């Protein structure tokens, strides 16, 4: 194992963690800007709490559904 890297077994946690962080930050920002009509200081101030709530929901959901998604993908995509 190279220095500074986690063992392979942590992949099932790290991948959904990174995916949920990126997706919820982008989606919550788009949702707030859309609701405000434009990018404003209040919209920027609202974003961290909106992001935190969406991430708190998305990360556990990803942990639960990712194994199912992998199986469905294996049925659809030739490996």
From TrEMBL:
Pfam family, one: DUF2798
InterPro entries named in the record: DUF2798
Protein keywords: Membrane, Transmembrane, Transmembrane helix
TM regions (residue ranges): 12-33, 45-69
Protein name (record): DUF2798 domain-containing protein
Organism in which the protein naturally occurs: Rhizobium indigoferae
Taxon lineage: Bacteria, Pseudomonadati, Pseudomonadota, Alphaproteobacteria, Hyphomicrobiales
């Amino acid at each position: 194992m190279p220095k500074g890297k986690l063992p392979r077994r942590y992949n099932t946690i790290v991948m959904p963690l990174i995916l949920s962080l990126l997706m919820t930050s982008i989606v919550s920002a788009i949702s707030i800007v859309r609701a405000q009509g434009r990018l404003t200081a209040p919209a920027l101030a609202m974003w961290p709490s909106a992001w935190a709530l969406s991430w708190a929901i998305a990360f556990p959901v990803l942990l639960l559904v990712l194994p199912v998604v992998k199986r469905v993908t294996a049925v659809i995509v030739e490996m």
